[in-house]
Amino acid sequence: MSIIVENLTKLYGTQKAVNNISFSAEPGKILGFLGPNGAGKSTTMKILAGFIPQTSGMAKVAGFSVSSQSLEVRRNLGYLPEHNPLYLDMYVKESLEFVADLHQVSNKQRRIKEVIELTVLGAEQHKKIGALSKGYRQRVGIAQSIIHDPAVLILDEPTSGLDPNQLVEIRKLLIELGKSKTLILSTHIMQEVEAVCSEVIIINKGSIVADGSLTQLKNDHENKSLESIFLTLTSSVG
Description:
Layout: E1 3-12, E2 15-25, E3 30-34, H1 41-48, E4 56-61, E5 64-65, H2 70-75, E6 77-80, H3 92-102, H4 108-118, H5 134-146, E7 152-156, H6 164-178, E8 182-186, H7 190-196, E9 199-204, E10 207-213, H8 214-220, H9 226-235
Parallel strand pairs: 3-8, 3-9, 6-7, 7-8
Antiparallel strand pairs: 1-2, 1-4, 4-5, 9-10
Helix pairs in contact: 3-4
């Protein structure tokens, strides 16, 4: 398993943002990590990425502890946060060179060319990031997260702001990446989950209310739509 989470808890004062959750993720299966706003999704992903510490419990990424081996976790992880922090005054290719240098990527120019092709940024590579549409900025964020060819990807709302044509292109990219990498995808767009994910976790009020294959989840709920299942599970937890 490339991601293992056991009894993970995060407290903010007396509030449990994440409440004793356990799950795992492995290569070749894209995991949709779903929940309403404030459910604990982003908090969990930030813990896995080493941005914030857990209060208790254990989490490993690519075999490394997020609490005691955070540098190794970062070397093996590509992370796109929900709000996609970018240097808007940088040019697209320049920003990829900068991130590649941070990761000490070998054959840097070849890898940058590959990533630009993968994310379909060729026509935009010589533009300033600040001049790009939100959709293209999302592509830059994805490009930065994969530049060092990490074993694990955690993408928080990666398709936010994309038009239908861009959605199709990024969907193909995610499916291709998911064939060899461990990929956790968080989104509020249920159609995206049904299009690319084979596994689903639904979290509500800090606790996991569903964890398994998308097929099994639908079978357990009379083959209802994922949106209908989501609404049922996230409104029934008191």
